[in-house]
Amino acid sequence: MQITADTVRHVAKLARLAVSETEVERLTPELNDILHYAEQLQQLNLDDVVATSHSFQLVNALRADVVRPSLPREEALKNAPDSEQGQVRVPAVLEG
Amino acid sequence: MQTVKEIIRSLQSGESKPSEWVELSIQQIERAESSIQSFLSVQPEMAIQQAKKLDESQPSGSLYGVPYALKDNICTEGLRTTAASRILENYIPPYSATVAEKLQNENAVLVGKTNLDEFAMGSSTENSAFQKTHNPHRLGFVPGGSSGGSAAAVAANMVPFALGSDTGGSIRQPAAFCGVVGLKPTYGRVSRFGLIAFASSLDQIGPFTQTVEDAALVLEAISGYDPHDSTSAKHETERFSQALTGDIKGMRVGVLPQDALHGLDNGVADALQNAIRTLSSAGAEIVEIDLPHQSYAVATYYLIAPAEASSNLARYDGVRYGRRASGETLLEMYEKTRSEGFGLEVKRRIMIGTYALSSGYYDAFYKRAQKMRTLIRQDYEKAFAKCDVILTPTTPTTAFRMGEKLESPLQMYLNDIFTIPANLAGLPGISVPCGKVDGLPVGMQLVGRAFDEATLLRVAHAYEQLRGFSVQLAAEEVGQ
């Protein structure tokens, strides 16, 4: 399997990254190298192996559904690049 | 700087006051920092003020008056926390990580925040957006990574202990490169609340210290269940320091066969053989074990960790905190913010992870990596039927030159071959200095059973007592 410059552009889009052409040129062979190396996992038959997503089998961690104090709104907004009237402001989602 | 234990003894007996130790730490930072560059921020006034307050009170708390540093991906309320990323350059957390709170409660004194590879992604600390940290033993060489700043700060005698985080070796590898002790606890032993997430199923916080006993003391202070981290374990926190009896007679130490250790530098291989002889002469039983899937660990890790990272780092979108670039539309703002805010290695990993999780490649890459993770975990289960701890080198080589591996990401990744498997299996691991080659330290790694840090520390401590040299800090060589 070969990663092309187009694959890199497509994946960047999925990841919400704007990549420059210089970056595409650099990343294409690098990602190829890394994914080619990762292809060694294809050598083994893993059909009967159960996947591990977590080192230890955890059961759901539940807690009582009670109201507790949380971060005050002004604290939560202190790091927001743009806020007004207790809300964060972002550029228009839809044109028009 | 004395060890944590010596400082505690001196303070408890009234021979010294907390402010003396904090001032000593700050003086050493002022002296050595211009050549080492291990701190992203230092808080001298705040630290001295806290220490002076402690001067007035009766000694209380297990780390009363002991100065320390935190890796800058551990949140501190009101103190800038950057993860060495432009995207968090001005981020001031509204809360502290649980480990920071715990150390505060034990009356340890925070003096500063240390450098790292951006978002803890790297093995040399060269991926920091702000500065490059030098190895205190030899300037111009890397300190390892990603917790290179914490390792270098302890090695250069600036603080008696520092915390780091370890996702694929980011505590143990820099500890080995800098000639100090580095402990990655069992996954879940220490709360991750307030640790800026990289790969959540692998990340774990742990200490850098001069001695194994100090590592045990710090571990006692930071471990325990935390309702804010539902993956933290409900295990009793033991008095790890009391497990250090020095007696390892009959302890079974597992070692890998020669062919699993190919690619080692000669000096590292010799130091490892010496360590095996030392443990054997202390009455430990050396048994050969096999970890047949270890050779797949790097490939497995470099799919799982980027996949988790691509998800965790989706939160940096310029909306609620962190840097924002301007854009006409929301989508353009997201893309520009992330492109300007993240460095190349972070982008690389987000891209690998996104690819491995994307439609059509999920089964071939991510799912397979998760299955391989099962086999690696089972390798350890089988090995631990035959032994109590497993001994390997921490890294195949000693510290490399700055810039040497920057052009080849894959070569940089292969450096983590011995440390990654323990993260995939969630097991505790420790790196202890076991020699020097050309002035650069060599580390040996011990990996233990889950939640059996007591045995791990006991073997490491016994080795430390017998290895024939005491910890050699680099302070004499830098800035003096």
From TrEMBL, chain A:
It holds the Pfam family GatC. One of its GO terms (molecular function) is glutaminyl-tRNA synthase (glutamine-hydrolyzing) activity. The keyword Nucleus does not apply. InterPro entries: Asp/Glu-ADT_sf_sub_c, GatC. It comes from Alicyclobacillus tolerans. Heterotrimer of A, B and C subunits. Allows the formation of correctly charged Asn-tRNA(Asn) or Gln-tRNA(Gln) through the transamidation of misacylated Asp-tRNA(Asn) or Glu-tRNA(Gln) in organisms which lack either or both of asparaginyl-tRNA or glutaminyl-tRNA synthetases. The reaction takes place in the presence of glutamine and ATP through an activated phospho-Asp-tRNA(Asn) or phospho-Glu-tRNA(Gln). The keyword Isomerase does not apply. It catalyses: L-glutamyl-tRNA(Gln) + L-glutamine + ATP + H2O = L-glutaminyl-tRNA(Gln) + L-glutamate + ADP + phosphate + H(+); L-aspartyl-tRNA(Asn) + L-glutamine + ATP + H2O = L-asparaginyl-tRNA(Asn) + L-glutamate + ADP + phosphate + 2 H(+). Residues 74-96 are annotated as: Disordered. GO terms for biological process: glutaminyl-tRNAGln biosynthesis via transamidation; regulation of translational fidelity; translation. Keywords: ATP-binding, Ligase, Nucleotide-binding, Protein biosynthesis, Transferase. Belongs to the GatC family. This is Aspartyl/glutamyl-tRNA(Asn/Gln) amidotransferase subunit C. PANTHER family: GLUTAMYL-TRNA(GLN) AMIDOTRANSFERASE SUBUNIT C, MITOCHONDRIAL. The gene is gatC. Its EC number is 6.3.5.-. It is an enzyme of class 6 (ligase).
TrEMBL record, chain B:
Residues 20-457 form the Amidase domain. GO terms for biological process: translation. Pfam families: Amidase. InterPro entries: Amidase (IPR000120), Amidase_CS (IPR020556), Amidase_dom (IPR023631), AS_sf (IPR036928), GatA (IPR004412). One of its GO terms (cellular component) is glutamyl-tRNA(Gln) amidotransferase complex. The active site is at K71 (charge relay system), S146 (charge relay system), S170 (acyl-ester intermediate). GO terms for molecular function: ATP binding; glutaminyl-tRNA synthase (glutamine-hydrolyzing) activity; transferase activity. Belongs to the amidase family. GatA subfamily. Heterotrimer of A, B and C subunits. This is Glutamyl-tRNA(Gln) amidotransferase subunit A. It comes from Alicyclobacillus tolerans. The gene is gatA.
